[in-house]
C-alpha cells in the first residue's frame, strides 16, 4: 500500500503542469470535486462505461501483468535489470501497433500521418514502459505500475501546445518544468527498495548485482 502511494505521488509530481492547467481551466471548486469523488452514482456510471473500464482498469492491470510481472522476470536473468528496463518496453510499444491497423482499415488520415502517429505512440509507450519497468524492478510490486498506468491513461499526453497558448502561460509552463525537475529528484528516493523489502523479488533473479536494486 505504501508503494502504491509513493509511486502515485511520483505521477502527480510529473504531471504537475497538466494538473495545474486543468485546475486553472476547470470551473469546479475543490468542494465540487470532492463531492463528485465520493458520489456512488458517479462511480456506478464509470463502472458501466466499457471504455472507462478498459482504459482505467482492464488495460492497466492486464498490460502491466504481462509486460512487467511476467516478462521482466524472464529478461532480468539473461540481460540484467538495467538492460531489461529498456528491452521490455520495446515489446510493449510494438503491442500498440494494432491502432495503426485500425486507422488504415478505416482510412482515418493519410498514410504519412498514420505513420508519424505510430512512431510517436511507439516512442511514448516505450518511455512509459521503461518507467513502469523501473518501478517494478525497484519495488518488486505490481500495484505501483498499475496505478501509474491507469493515471497516465486518464491524463493522456500533456497538451503542451495548449499550454503555450494559455492566458497564464508562465505559470503553467513553470509548473511543467518544476514537475519534471521534482520527478527526477525524487525518482530514486521514492522508489528506494528498503521501503518495500530488500532485496526485491525481481532483483534476486539477476545473475550479477545492479545499482537499481540497491537503496
Describe the 3D structure.
The protein has 215 residues and is an all-alpha fold. It contains twelve helices and no strands.
Overall strand count: 0
What is the count of DSSP helices, taking H or I runs of 4+ residues? 12
- How far the N terminus sits from the C terminus, by CA atoms, comes to 19 Å
Most strands sheet:
none
SSE arrangement, N to C: HHHHHHHHHHHH
Shape: globular
Mean pLDDT: 84
In terms of DSSP E residues, the strand content is under 5%
Unreliable spans = none
Rg, Å, rounded: 19 Å
Total of domains: 1
Enzyme class: hydrolase
Pfam family, one: Rce1-like
Membrane topology: Multi-pass membrane protein
Protein name: CAAX prenyl protease 2
Short description:
The protein is mostly helical. It contains 12 helices and no strands.
Topology readout:
Elements: H1 2-14, H2 16-25, H3 30-37, H4 40-47, H5 50-70, H6 72-79, H7 81-94, H8 98-105, H9 111-139, H10 143-155, H11 160-164, H12 169-190
Name the descriptors.
12 helices; mainly alpha; 215 residues
